[in-house]
Design brief:
The chain has 484 residues and is an alpha+beta fold. Helices cover 36% and strands 13% of the residues.
C-alpha cells in the first residue's frame, strides 16, 4: 500500500505535466499533418528520461488515509442576494454556508503544500515537485482564497512576494523558457520523474506556460502593485518560442537535443491560445484553423480534433477541463458556446440513459495507472477512460470533483449541475483538501488522490460564484485594484 501511494503521488504529477502537451511527432515547421504511423507515444511517462531511475520511495512521505468529512449544507442554485464585487473597496463573499465550508476545505491543500522557501505549491500532496500548469492553478487558487477572505492581506502579500522573489531568480535553460519541472523546495530544475535536471534538458510545454501566464495576467490585473515585477519576470523569458507558424509550439528531449513540436488538441489548444493573447502572443492557426471534424455521440453533435493517436501519435481527448477553465477564467465566446452546451448535454443525457452520474475529466487516480483522461470521445470511440498510451480502463471511469464544482458554478440553475455538486460536496479530507472524485463503479468508492488542480479549481469556481458569475480575468476597463 505504501509503495502504491508513493507511486500515485509521483505519477499523477508527472502524467499531468506530460499528457496535456499532446504533441505531434513532427517538427513544428511543418503543418499538423504528419506521418500516419507514429514512431513513439511521446506523451507516455516511461518515454521520458529512460536512463534515469525513478526517485526512491523515501523521498516522498506517505499521506494519511483520507477521512471523508460530510459538509452540513447542500448548495443552492444562487445566493438570495448576489454578491457583486466593488471595483475599489470590497471583496466578493460567499453567502451559502456550504460554499464557505467548501472553500475552507479546498484551502487546506494550500496550507499543507505551500513552500515558504520558494512560494511554490506542490503538484501533489506532500510531493515537492511541480509544473507550470500546476503553478498556474496554484496562483489562481491563492488569488481566489484571498478574494474570498480565507487569508489576511499580510499573508497574501507575503506569499506573493516570496513567489515573485523565486521567479525573479528562477534558473532557466539555454532555451530562455522555464524548464518543464522544478523542485518546490529549492526551485531547482527537475526532470519529469523528479530527478535533478541542472542543465534544463526537459524542454518546455506551451500549454503549461499558457496557463501560468494566464495566472500571472490575472494577478497583475487585480493587483497592479505587482504588475511591474511580473512584467519584468516575463520579460526574461523567450516567449517567441511558444508559437511557430501560428501553432502552439513546445519542445521535448530527443537524442540529447530538444525537438520542437506542435502542441495541443481541440479545446486545450484554444484555451491556451486565448491565454497567450492576454500577453499579445498570437497563435492564429490554433485559434482559427484547427483541424476538426464533426461526430455524433448519443445523437448529439460534437467537434473533435482530427489529429488522433493513430495519425499523429497523440490523443484527441474531448474532455471537460479546458472548456470549464475557459468559462471560469476568461468567459466563453460565441464560437465555443455550442460546443460547450453540447458537451454538457451529452453528459447529462448519459445520466438519464444509464442512471450513472457523469462528469468526465482528466484527473489523477489513487491506483494504477494513476492518471486518466476520461473523455466523451477520443481516438474514434465514445466514453473512453484512457492513459497516455491509449490503453482503456473502463472499470476506472469516475466522477470528477473539480468538474462537478465547475459545471455548477457556470450553470447554477440547471438541475443536473446541482445534482453533480451535491454528489461531490462531501468528498473532502479535513486535513488535506478535496479528493479527486468518486469512481462510477460504486464498489471502488472514492478516488482519494489529492492534488493542486482539484483544490485550486474548486476555489476558482467558488470565486466565480461570488463574483456574480463574472470570469476571473478582468475586462480592460475594470483593471483596477479590488481592495484598499
Amino acid at each position: 500500500m505504501a509503495t502504491s501511494g508513493i507511486k500515485s503521488m509521483i505519477l499523477q504529477s508527472v502524467l499531468y505535466a506530460t499528457t496535456n502537451q499532446q504533441p505531434l511527432l513532427c517538427p513544428s515547421t511543418a503543418t499538423w499533418q504528419c506521418s500516419p504511423i507514429p514512431s513513439m507515444i511521446i506523451a507516455a511517462p516511461d518515454n521520458f528520461n529512460l536512463d534515469v531511475e525513478t526517485p526512491s520511495p523515501q523521498t516522498v512521505p506517505e499521506p494519511n488515509p483520507p477521512t471523508v468529512t460530510p459538509l452540513p449544507l447542500k448548495p443552492t442554485a444562487t445566493p438570495d442576494k448576489p454578491v457583486t464585487p466593488s471595483p475599489t473597496t470590497s471583496l466578493p463573499r460567499l453567502i451559502q454556508e456550504a460554499d464557505q465550508i467548501a472553500a475552507r476545505r479546498a484551502w487546506k491543500y494550500f496550507e499543507r503544500n505551500w513552500n515558504p522557501q520558494t512560494g511554490l505549491v506542490n503538484s501533489g500532496d506532500n510531493l515537492p515537485w511541480t509544473t507550470w500548469w500546476d503553478q498556474g492553478s496554484a496562483l489562481l487558487g491563492i488569488h481566489a482564497a484571498y478574494q474570498l477572505g480565507l487569508l489576511p492581506q499580510d499573508v497574501f502579500q507575503n506569499r506573493m512576494n516570496r513567489l515573485l522573489q523565486t521567479l525573479e531568480k528562477l534558473p532557466l535553460p539555454p532555451t530562455g523558457l522555464p524548464n518543464k519541472a522544478y523542485s518546490t523546495h529549492t526551485a531547482e530544475m527537475r526532470h519529469l520523474n523528479d530527478t535533478p535536471d541542472p542543465k534544463g534538458t526537459s524542454g518546455w510545454s506551451v500549454l503549461d506556460m499558457a496557463r501560468f501566464l494566464l495566472g500571472l495576467h490575472i494577478m497583475r490585473s487585480h493587483y497592479p502593485e505587482y504588475s511591474d515585477r511580473i512584467n519584468h519576470i516575463v520579460a526574461r523569458w523567450n516567449l517567441a518560442k511558444l508559437v511557430k507558424d501560428g501553432w502552439l509550439n513546445g519542445a521535448i528531449p530527443r537524442a540529447g537535443q530538444l525537438l520542437e513540436v506542435q502542441e495541443g488538441r481541440l479545446g486545450y489548444e484554444q484555451y491556451a491560445a486565448h491565454s497567450l493573447k492576454l500577453w499579445n502572443i498570437q497563435a492564429t492557426n490554433a485559434l482559427s484553423n484547427p483541424p476538426v471534424k464533426v461526430v455524433q455521440v448519443d445523437g448529439i453533435t460534437l467537434q473533435v480534433d482530427q489529429r488522433n493517436l493513430k495519425n499523429s501519435g497523440a490523443t484527441n481527448y474531448l474532455t471537460n477541463d479546458p472548456y470549464l477553465l475557459w468559462g471560469l477564467e476568461m468567459g466563453w465566446n460565441d464560437t465555443v458556446k455550442p460546443q460547450v452546451q453540447n458537451l454538457f448535454k451529452v453528459q447529462q443525457q448519459r445520466f438519464k440513459r444509464t442512471g450513472i452520474l457523469t462528469a468526465i475529466n482528466e484527473d489523477s487516480l489513487d491506483r494504477p495507472p494513476y492518471f486518466l483522461y476520461y473523455s466523451v470521445y477520443t481516438n474514434g470511440q465514445s466514453w473512453q477512460a484512457v492513459n497516455v498510451s491509449g490503453k482503456a480502463y473502463p472499470q476506472l471511469r469516475f466522477v470528477s470533483t473539480k468538474a462537478a464544482f465547475s459545471w455548477f458554478a457556470l450553470m447554477p440553475n440547471d438541475p443536473y449541475t446541482k445534482k453533480l455538486r451535491d454528489f461531490v460536496q462531501n468528498l473532502s479530507d479535513k486535513n488535506r483538501g478535496y479528493l479527486s472524485g468518486r469512481y462510477e463503479n460504486s464498489q471502488l468508492g472514492v478516488n482519494a488522490s489529492v492534488d493542486v488542480n482539484t483544490n485550486a479549481i474548486i476555489l476558482e469556481s467558488l470565486l466565480y460564484q461570488a463574483r456574480d458569475r463574472h470570469p476571473l480575468v478582468l475586462e480592460a476597463k475594470s483593471q483596477v485594484r479590488q481592495q484598499k
